[in-house]
Amino acid sequence: MLGLFLGLSIIMSIGAQNIFIIKQGVKREYSYYSAFICFISDLILISLSISSVHFLLNKYPLMNEILLIIAILFLTVYGLFSIHNGLNQKSSLQNDNLKNTAKTSFWKITLIAFSFSLLNPHAILDVFVLIGGAANKYRTTIHQYQFVLGAMTASLIWFFGLTTISVYLNKLLYYKRAWSILETISGVLMLGIALNVAGKL
């Protein structure tokens, strides 16, 4: 459950990848395929984060505390930032003309989806520092796998859920209030996870 909630709190924040998913959903253009590519990309990043962070921690044991401290600071700052944006209704998509854009080819959509996912510095930082660092605080391999499975499940739920909302309830996403609520929930989740991680220090 911790892996699930951490994954959701990270992925719920409005960013380039989520806006891309929403655009494809609103336009109904390779929408679920785009979600699938983003999900697969998350699986790759999460898998790599566990192995690479585990290697670094074995070589430099002190990095465990360093990663946890970075994760706590990042979650706290980003969580407060998300809550601030949510309460002040500063989140918007500016998607008035999404339906008027030209249709994109299948291969171009594939390239764009992978780029938003694998070349996104924020996504890489989130996965490697937060998920990778948090997973390695568990001493047993089975608990690490359970945590990772929760984080992967969060990606599956979010990408396909967001796509479904974009396709069938796209008018709702034009309202700034809906995104304000989303930002606030994301921030609260992040602060809760930060407290949980702080208890492991």
Can you tag this structure with a few keywords?
about 75% helix, about 200 residues, mainly alpha, single chain, globular, 8 helices
State Rg.
17 Å
Q: How large a portion of the residues is in β-strands, by DSSP E?
A: under 5%
Helix/strand class: mainly alpha
Number of domains: 1
Number of strands: 0
Average pLDDT, to the nearest integer? Answer: 76
What does the oligomeric state look like here? single chain
The percent of residues in helical segments reads over 70%
The geometry reads as globular
Elements, N to C (H/E): HHHHHHHH
Unreliable spans = 95-101
Q: Helical region count?
A: 8
Describe the structure.
It is built from eight helices and no strands. The chain is an all-alpha fold and 201 residues long. It is globular and about 50 Å long. It is 77% helix and 0% strand. About 3% of the residues have low confidence. The two termini are 20 Å apart.
Kindly summarize this structure in a few lines:
The chain has helices spanning 2-11, 16-27, 31-59, 63-87, 106-118, 121-135, 141-168, 176-198.
Topology of helices and strands:
Blueprint: H1 2-11, H2 16-27, H3 31-59, H4 63-87, H5 106-118, H6 121-135, H7 141-168, H8 176-198
Helix pairs in contact: 1-6, 1-7, 1-8, 2-3, 2-7, 3-5, 3-6, 3-7, 4-6, 4-8
